[in-house]
# Entry
Amino acid sequence: MSNLTSVLSDLLVAVPQLRTQVYFKASLTALSHAMEDQVLASTSDQPLLIASFQRERFYRQEAHRYKRLARQTNQVYVLAAPETDFTNASEYYETIAFDPTESLSQEWHLVAIGQSYSTCLICRERPSIVQIKPSPHLPAVDMDPTRQFEGIWTSERQISCIAAELLLQRILHYRPELAAKIELARNRFGIFPQRRSSAKKSKTAAPIALPSLDPAAIDTNPFVQRLVTYLQAGQYKLLKAYRSIAAQERKERLINSITAAIRKGSATGLPLHPQEILKVAVRELGIALGACRCLIYRAQANDDQVAIAHEYLQPGVSSVVGKVMPLQKNPLFQEMTCQQGALCIVDTQTDSRVTDSPLLQQLVKQLDIRSWLLMPVLYQGKLLGIVESHYCGSQPHQWTADETSLVEAIATQVGAALIQAEAYANLEDLNQQLEALDRTRSNLIAITGHELRTPLSTIQVCLESLATEPDMPLELRQVMLSTALTDSERMRKLVQDFLTLSNLESGRVEWHPETLPLDECVELALSRVRTRSNPEDLPQIVSTIPVQLPLIRVDGDWLVELIAKLLDNACKFTPPTGQIAIAARTNGGTTLEVTVSDTGRGIEPNRLEIVFDRFYQEEGALRRTAGGTGLGLAICRQIVNSWNGKIWAESAGKDKGTTFHFTVPTVE
# Structure
């Protein structure tokens, strides 16, 4: 049967004068390593060491340290939840598998007691401060460095003995056969069981007098306390940065989710419907803001009124779907239209713009609006619609800059999507698309003709010269041979790309998924790129792949090919003075997101989707300055589709660089 009593709570009852302190995980790790190193440094006695871990994976990371500690003493006890193969055993040291519902699973303990020193670390985890509001459409974000713990660290011998006894009682509960061994430790270090029982009888017991340490004892408290203070200060700075990162990521993830949801409608090549765009956007925005009511509706600057068709509501809030909202007689609409920016009202009961307008007073009363945010949906200065957010509680809501920025970003995305949807429905735009298809066909003929004819002509000239000029100098013969070999390799790559894309699209490729680390594939791809190119012509390539990423499950050869092609593409459009960066991060529980960024030529925002089309050449077939057939990114898309992943590009425009993203499945 599990023990639901907290060890920290028992210790605070036994020693009421103790005061807890908040520690970051990095500080706890440094403290625990310092305590373990103190045991390793002491060779004169056989100390008692007790450690407990919240999860087995934490224990596995430190197992090698405890094997070293076990060489110093046979009084080493390690507790962890019985996950996978962690069980009760007596090998290097005693292992104790406690029940998963045990309070130990929420705490972190380390006690070290020797003849000339004693330290203990007893703490439990606190809820994280940095949190990203969960959404059904967005995976949770785990920021491990922000984990905080509340507890006690001390080198007082009496407190350490009490903490040791509390943990020894837990050990005896799960492994009673260790009673004789534990009794030896108690007798050696003066640990008395009755202290725990007397503490449990009454929570108001008199405080225990704590004797000072032996003058000959080792006192490491001042040094360690200074170290912890330094670490804590650094962690608080990091925590502040993580808050900013979390807010920015929340914004980017929401924008990406809305953009992805909107683009699902165009995945089949069918026109997007403006009403579907508004429906998706208002739902996602409402979930992200947590407002009582969110509205998105179409409107133009000269409209007199508009009917509400899409909204997001919190439970208990009245709906306004079907209601008519006045525009021309609404002073807030007029002000927002003139300034073409956000309009925030913190309190409708005191804001003069509302109190001076009978129309707005009536509207606020009908809809129970206490705080009000209006944001125009614009595209190239033209008003396409309005986003509204309402708080209907008894207290006003202070609109933050992050909230305003988030709504503005969503409004921008909605505006672009609406224009795109209207373009699909416009006959003139369809004619332009037909013209673009015709240009693509012409580019295909021109590109393939150029890519085949040019190397063939060069090879022919070189071989004819070698055949007809037997007295040609050796240096010139080497130049001719090198040129012919280079152009033959160029033709081979062209044919290979055609065959690869054809096999991928027709489904003739046999996939061989395997479990492997992402960083190995990245290194292979980097090696391939550097081997095929002159190092002086390459920009700086930086890889920042974290080593703690989970393993992935894909065909390794094709993943290397994918990364190599993205790197080749980045090198092609980035000058040698530029930079290319490869990064990766977890994207929820089932995928990793890999990015290849460059500081090169960039891509116009309206071309980010079509760069993955076959034979696409941004500059055109006859004016382009970089070689290639336009098949590389099309091959990349087919490879990612093979494991049901996603690939997309981001760019701020010409000469502002490009970032390619793709997802890879992780091992479940």
Observations:
- The CA atoms of residues 165 and 193 lie 6 Å apart.
- The longest helix spans residues 221-264.
